[in-house]
From TrEMBL, chains A, B:
Positions of NAD(+) binding: D38, N306
GO molecular function, one term: oxidoreductase activity, acting on the aldehyde or oxo group of donors, NAD or NADP as acceptor
Keyword GTP-binding carried by entry: no
UniProt keyword Lyase present: no
UniProt source species: Edaphosphingomonas laterariae
UniProt entry keywords in alphabetical sequence: NAD, NADP, Nucleotide-binding, Oxidoreductase
InterPro entries named among the record's database cross-references: DapB_N (IPR000846), GlycerAld/Erythrose_P_DH (IPR020831), GlycerAld_3-P_DH_cat (IPR020829), GlycerAld_3-P_DH_NAD(P)-bd (IPR020828), Glyceraldehyde-3-P_DH_2_arc (IPR006436), NAD(P)-bd_dom_sf (IPR036291)
Cellular compartments per GO CC: cytoplasm
Active site, per annotation: C145 (nucleophile)
Domain Glyceraldehyde 3-phosphate dehydrogenase NAD(P) binding: 7-145
Protein name in UniProt: Glyceraldehyde 3-phosphate dehydrogenase (NAD(P)+)
């Protein structure tokens, strides 16, 4: 492969993340989607044929069952691995850790997601922070939705010299929309039993210097997570200084409650109105008019689309591992343009 | 009235708070419920007759309509005011402020609730903090559910010499259960547009020394509020010291997620199992096993039954205004015993 050939990408697992990664890869000029691997036999894989994406089976046993269910199967994972440069693993939690051995044995670069532990790849990825250290590596882990949002926002404050320590309360959506018929909580709130919750330490897997503590609670809705933060600044600051710090990140988009974006459902509706695939909100959507600075203390809230926020970072991770882009800035700029990522929605 | 005659209590407004106050007053040996005033003409007032509580109408016009709907009306508010020592106003927000003029003109002591502003009475009440300053006053305001919980918990830390400053995120239930058919939010989260939210300053109306900032968000459930707190302590402390501080308040009950009380619905079910009227949780239910101390920082979460938490304080406010009890301790002990208030549910 020369620098100018498109990188050949395989996606293993066509679920909530996998299908969004597929759409995003198709939008990149420097990548080619070689195929998608799955094991399902129902409606979830039907859109692949319409999109002209080759479907592979995880094993020959799965291939037989899937063919029996009427799907055209191009081959197995093993065969696909011979034709690609990098695998994006989007299988359910803990399965990717087993797959990692297969990718390694086949000498393929790979990306896992935030359900896996840092140790699975030894490197944790958020484009704005750890692109450079991922360059040329065999593998990285794109951290979870909540962790991605934490690293983006706290890094913005840190780069402005404003961050001392951050304490956050995370309201986690109960379940994903597509599987909410399988059961989620109803008319209650379920605190995560451990304080601090795991997202703080996970953010430190990307940047060990972050002084961050999180608490989390599951809430009965399916749309997105919502974060509330109390941050101690290094000094007294103005609201405008803080907003400028957030504006310096291209993946934090300011929104305004006063503009009618008063709740998470209205933000999702706007993403649909903008014609984004799956109504994806790739940005951290941070309420500009709610944000408050009192002396050296900062308070704010933002929304995290748990199904979409890691998609741009996954695209950047592909470029980092395969050398498609020399700098984080180059990769981020390409990804932002192809996905229509915005600095603000107001 | 001598010190030994029961205090005669009128309740104006038989809604979510009024009906609970009525039941609580009936359980007090030193009080007599003279009557309840309302304007409704439907099912909501039917339980009064079964309980043997006299029903009054807010005006003669209302009396006529209510009689037309089949209710036995003992008279009007004006008539009832001539027979009581104190009125507990439980009418909807802002109506109590107008009623206050009527109570004053009739020389009756009165209590309003947290929907009204501090200025309506010039005094804000939480039994453990402002009983003494309410003694003998003409009127006081029992603060809102959230504010009551904040004052109880932060006062406990303050009295142990541990409180420096507290920052909280409040998850507010969308609507009360009895009126959830009238519409509440569904499958979304609605941030309160102002940060800080009003509960912090409201807690300062009881104790101006509290360094407290709150943020609030409405969540799609009807059971209770849930608070998450990050507190900076005056010094490093142990978890046991902090728990002892909370245990020193008789109106904070420790619960354990590990005991199966892992969410707010299970706590409400326990209140029902204990046979409490309306499944009332009068205490702040604070998760002992989730609570975490890290150096001089404290993190914890608790549940607030917005319909019930102010009931014991309202009973104590009656005693404070009318001189029924000489000390906060005496009143609180009586109220706790009659309502079955507990130090822990584990």
């Amino acid at each position: 492969m020369t620098q100018h050939d498109p990188v050949r990408v395989a996606i293993n697992g066509y679920g909530v993340i996998g299908k969004r990664v597929a759409t995003a890869v198709l939008a990149q000029k420097d990548m080619r989607l070689a195929g998608v691997v799955d094991i399902a036999t129902d409606w979830r894989l039907r859109p692949l044929e319409e999109q002209g994406i080759d479907l592979y089976a995880a094993s020959s046993e799965h291939a037989q069952t899937m063919r029996g269910a009427g799907f055209t199967i191009a081959g197995t994972l093993d065969a696909l691995l011979g034709q690609v440069d990098v695998v994006v693993d989007c299988t359910p939690k803990r399965i990717a850790a087993q797959n990692a051995e297969i990718y390694r044995a086949n000498g393929r670069k790979f990306i896992v997601h935030g359900g896996e532990k840092h140790d699975v790849t030894g490197h944790s990825f958020v484009a704005e922070v750890s692109f450079d250290s991922a360059a040329g590596r065999a593998a990285t882990r794109v951290v979870s939705c909540n962790t991605t949002s934490i690293v983006r926002t706290l890094t913005a404050l840190k780069r402005a010299g404003l961050l001392k320590r951050a304490r956050g309360t995370l309201l986690r959506r109960a379940t994903d929309p597509w599987e909410s018929h399988l059961g989620g909580i109803m008319n209650t709130l379920v605190p995560e039993p451990d304080i601090p919750s795991h997202q703080g330490p996970d953010a430190q897997s990307v940047d060990p210097q972050l002084d961050v503590v999180t608490m989390a609670v599951k809430v009965p809705q399916t749309l997105a997570h919502l974060h509330y933060w109390s941050v101690l600044l290094t000094r007294n600051a103005s609201k405008e200084e803080v907003l400028d710090a957030f504006r310096a990140s291209s993946r934090i988009a300011l929104i305004r409650a006063g503009d009618g974006l008063a709740a998470i459902n209205t933000v999702k509706e706007l993403m649909a109105d903008l014609g984004r695939p799956h109504d994806n909100l790739y940005e951290v959507a941070l309420w500009e008019d709610m944000l408050k600075v009192e002396g050296d203390e900062l308070f704010y809230a933002y929304m995290v689309d748990n199904q979409a926020i890691v998609i741009p970072d996954t695209i950047d991770a592909i470029r980092a591992l395969t050398g498609l882009a020399r700098t984080a800035e180059d990769s981020i700029a390409q990804t932002n343009e192809t996905l229509g990522i915005r600095a603000a929605f107001c």
